[in-house]
Specification:
With about 650 residues, the protein is an alpha+beta fold. Helix content is about 50%, strand content about 20%. Among the domains are: about 150 residues, PAS domain (Beta-Lactamase); about 70 residues, Beta-Lactamase; about 50 residues; about 180 residues, 2-Layer Sandwich (Heat Shock Protein 90). It is rod-shaped, with a radius of gyration of 62 Å.
C-alpha cells in the first residue's frame, strides 16, 4: 500500500519551519546591541572600556617584560660565557708561555737536536733510547726533569709534560709510552709538527700511545702542544706536549648556572665535547648547528625538548663556550612580574565588573521607572510619578516628565472647558444666524426702493454697502483678485466719503496689467480704516488717502498713504516692535484684542506671515504731522492657490 502525503501535513510542516525561522530571527535580533536592554548595553560598554584595555595593557606589559628579561638574560649569559672564555684563554696562555720557557732551556734545545752536553764540546755524543746514557747524559737528563718538575709543581693543574725529539726520544717525569713505538708517529706529534712553532690546542686525547703514571682517562685531560724549530733552518726539532687536568678547565664553567636547569659546556671547533656537566640536556652538539660567526644564539630540539643555545668562540683556542637551557623555562623574575600583572588584571576585572553592575543599575533603573510611568500614562493615568532628589539628567528628565503630565492634565481640563464653550457658541450661532443671501436680497430691495422714490444718494449708499458685504464674504474664499479687492475698498471709501463728505478724498493708482493678480482678501480695508480714524480724522481740514499697487523685485507692493496726523517716534517704535514680534505673540495680540487701536494692522500682519512666511508682511513708516505710509509686501500670485481652488469647488458643490 502506498501512502500519499497529506496536503494538510505539508502545510503544517511548512508553518512549523516558518515559525522556527521566525524564532531564530527574533533571537538574532535580540543579540544585536541596539536590541538588548539598556542595562546590558551599559554593562557591555563599561566592560569594553574598562576591562578590555586593562587586559590588553596586561598582555602588552607581560610581553614587553618577557622580551626585556629575555634580552637581559641573553646579555648576562653572554657575559658569563665571555668570562669563561677569558678564564680558559688565560689558562691556555699560561701553557703557551710555559712552552716558550721550556723551549728556551739550553739542555732541552740540545736534547731536541739529539746532542748531550759533552757533544757540545766534541760534537760526537748523542742520547738515544737504545743505549745507556753516560754520566754527563745522566746529569743532563736530571736537569731537564728537574726543570719539568718545577713547572708541574708550580702549576698543579698540569697532569704531565713530555718532550719528544725528531729521533723518537722523549723525556717526562709523569708520562711514558704504552708500547715501543716511536712517538713521532703519534697524531699529536704530527699536528704540532704541521704548525711549526705555533701553539696548538689538541683537545681531549683519543687512542694515543702515551699515558701517565696516574693513568688519567682520556676524558679527564686536555692536551696542548707546540713544536720547537731550529732558528737557522726552521726545521722542526721536536714537540712539547702538556696534559692539562680537565678539572681546571671545568672549574671556570662548573659554577655557572643558567636558570633552573641550564649549564655551560665547552666544545672544540668540530663540536666534540671538551667539558660537559653530569646529566646534560644534550650529549653532543653537531657542528652544523652553529651559525657562522664567533658568537650567536639559536634554538634546536633535542630529545623532544626545545633548547636555547648561546655560544661564543675563543679566537685563541678555537673552543666554543656554549650556554644551554630550556627555551620555555620561566625565569623567576618573569614569573614574579607575570604574577603581579595577572593579579592587577584580575583586580581590575573584578572592580570593573562590580562597578559596571552598579553604574548600569543606577542609570538603567530610573529609566525603567520612567518607562513604567510612561506606560501608565498611555493607559490614561496621568498621575505624577515619585522621583528621588538626584540632580543629574535622569532626575531632571523625571521632574520634566512630571511637569509635562501636569501640563497635559491642565490642557485636558482647558480643552474640555473650550469644548463646552464651543458647543454653547455654536448653539447661539445657530439661533442668531442670518444667511448672506437674505442680507444681499434685503439690501437690493432697499436699493431699488430708494431709486424708485428718487433718493439717489440713499440708493448709492445701499449699493456700496451691498457690494461691500458681497465682496467681503466672497462665499468664504480666502483669496480674490486685486480688482475685486480694489472694488471692495472703493465701496468702503464711498460709504466713508458719504459720511465725511469734503473732508475725505481718495485716489487709486493701479495699472490694469496687475489687477488680475490674486491677493489675500481684506488686506486694504483694515489699513484704510486706520488711515481714516487715526490719520485723516485727527487732521484739521480735508485729507487724502492714496492707494497704490506696483511690482518690485518679483513681489507685489500695496501702499496705503495718508497725509493725516502721523505718529510720534515712541508710537512708531512700539508699532514696529509689535509687527516684528514672533508669530505666537502676534496671533495672541491680534486675537485677544490687546493691541487696541492697532488690532486691524496686527491682524493683517499675522495673516500675511501665517500664509506666506516671515519674509512677507507690513512695513510701517510715519512722521508726526506728515502722515503715515503702510506698505504691504505680498507675493505674486498669477493663479488662485490650489488649496483655495479646491475649497471653492467644495463650497460650490455643497451650495
Amino acid at each position: 500500500m502506498i501512502i500519499m502525503p497529506n496536503k494538510h501535513n505539508r502545510q503544517g510542516s511548512s508553518r512549523s519551519r516558518e515559525a522556527i525561522r521566525s524564532r531564530m530571527k527574533k533571537s538574532l535580533q535580540r543579540l544585536r546591541l541596539r536590541n538588548m536592554p539598556l542595562r546590558y548595553q551599559l554593562m557591555l560598554l563599561f566592560l569594553l572600556f574598562a576591562i578590555v584595555p586593562s587586559v590588553g595593557l596586561g598582555l602588552l606589559v607581560n610581553w614587553t617584560v618577557e622580551r626585556i628579561v629575555e634580552r637581559q638574560v641573553e646579555g648576562h649569559t653572554m657575559q658569563l660565557i665571555g668570562k669563561v672564555n677569558e678564564a680558559l684563554d688565560s689558562k691556555m696562555e699560561n701553557l703557551q708561555n710555559m712552552t716558550y720557557l721550556i723551549a728556551f732551556d739550553p739542555d732541552i734545545i740540545a736534547f731536541m737536536k739529539g746532542k748531550t752536553a759533552s757533544d757540545n764540546d766534541t760534537g760526537t755524543s748523542t742520547i738515544t733510547s737504545e743505549r745507556e746514557p753516560n754520566v754527563t747524559d745522566q746529569d743532563q737528563l736530571y736537569g731537564i726533569k728537574q726543570t719539568l718538575q718545577g713547572f708541574t709543581t708550580l702549576y698543579p693543574e698540569i697532569a704531565g709534560i713530555v718532550l719528544a725529539n725528531g729521533s723518537g726520544d722523549y723525556i717526562s717525569n709523569e708520562m711514558y709510552p704504552r708500547a715501543k713505538q716511536s712517538l713521532t708517529r703519534e697524531d699529536w706529534y704530527k699536528r704540532a709538527s704541521a704548525n711549526p712553532g705555533i701553539f696548538t690546542v689538541l683537545g681531549q686525547p683519543r687512542e694515543r700511545n702515551i699515558t701517565t703514571h696516574v693513568r688519567y682517562k682520556d676524558n679527564e685531560i686536555v692536551s696542548v702542544a707546540r713544536s720547537i724549530t731550529d732558528e737557522a733552518s726552521g726545521r722542526v726539532l721536536g714537540v712539547i706536549m702538556i696534559d692539562l687536568k680537565l678539572r681546571s678547565v671545568s672549574q671556570a664553567a662548573r659554577n655557572v648556572t643558567l636558570g633552573k636547569s641550564g649549564y655551560v659546556m665547552v666544545t672544540d671547533a668540530e663540536g666534540r665535547s671538551v667539558y660537559m656537566p653530569e646529566h646534560p640536556l644534550v650529549e653532543q652538539i653537531p657542528a652544523d648547528w652553529f651559525k657562522s660567526g664567533d658568537s650567536g644564539t639559536f634554538n634546536a630540539e633535542a630529545d623532544g625538548k626545545e633548547l636555547l643555545f648561546l655560544y661564543q668562540s675563543s679566537t685563541f683556542t678555537g673552543w666554543r663556550t656554549v650556554g644551554v637551557f630550556p627555551a620555555r623555562e620561566s625565569i623567576t623574575e618573569v614569573r614574579q612580574i607575570q604574577f603581579y600583572v595577572v593579579s592587577f588584571v584580575f583586580v581590575v576585572c573584578l572592580f570593573g565588573l562590580s562597578t559596571s553592575l552598579w553604574f548600569s543599575r543606577s542609570i538603567a533603573q530610573p529609566i525603567f521607572r520612567l518607562m513604567s510611568y510612561m506606560r501608565r500614562a498611555e493607559t490614561g493615568n496621568l498621575m505624577s510619578g515619585r522621583w528621588s532628589d538626584r540632580a543629574d539628567e535622569i532626575g531632571m528628565l523625571g521632574r520634566s516628565f512630571n511637569r509635562m503630565l501636569a501640563q497635559i492634565r491642565q490642557l485636558i481640563s482647558l480643552n474640555e472647558l473650550k469644548e463646552r464653550q464651543k458647543r454653547e457658541a455654536e448653539m447661539r450661532s445657530l439661533q442668531e444666524h442670518i444667511k448672506p443671501h437674505f442680507l444681499y436680497n434685503t439690501l437690493d430691495t432697499i436699493h431699488w426702493m430708494a431709486r424708485k422714490e428718487g433718493a439717489d444718494d440713499v440708493s448709492e449708499m445701499v449699493g456700496a454697502l451691498s457690494r461691500l458685504f458681497r465682496i467681503g464674504l466672497s462665499k468664504g474664499n480666502d483669496f480674490l483678485t486685486l480688482h475685486a479687492e480694489l472694488e471692495h475698498i472703493t465701496s468702503y471709501l464711498k460709504i466713508q466719503q458719504t459720511r465725511y463728505r469734503d473732508r475725505l478724498q481718495y485716489e487709486l493708482m493701479v495699472s490694469d496689467d496687475i489687477r488680475e493678480l490674486f491677493v489675500l482678501k481684506l488686506l486694504l480695508q483694515p489699513l484704510v480704516e486706520n488711515a481714516i480714524y487715526h490719520g485723516i480724522k485727527g487732521r484739521r481740514g480735508p485729507g487724502k488717502i492714496r492707494v497704490e499697487a506696483k511690482i518690485e523685485q518679483g513681489k507685489l507692493l500695496l501702499l496705503i498713504q495718508d497725509d493725516g496726523a502721523g505718529m510720534s517716534r515712541e508710537r512708531l517704535a512700539e508699532m514696529e516692535q509689535l509687527l516684528a514680534a514672533p508669530m505666537e505673540s502676534l496671533e495672541s495680540a491680534a486675537l485677544s484684542g490687546k493691541a487696541g487701536k492697532s488690532y486691524g494692522m496686527l491682524n493683517v500682519q499675522a495673516r500675511l506671515r501665517l500664509t506666506f512666511g516671515e519674509e512677507y508682511g507690513i512695513v510701517l513708516g510715519s512722521k508726526e504731522g506728515n502722515g503715515t505710509c503702510v506698505t504691504i509686501i505680498h507675493p505674486l500670485l498669477q493663479e488662485l492657490p490650489a488649496v483655495q481652488l479646491l475649497d471653492s469647488k467644495e463650497r460650490e458643490g455643497s451650495e
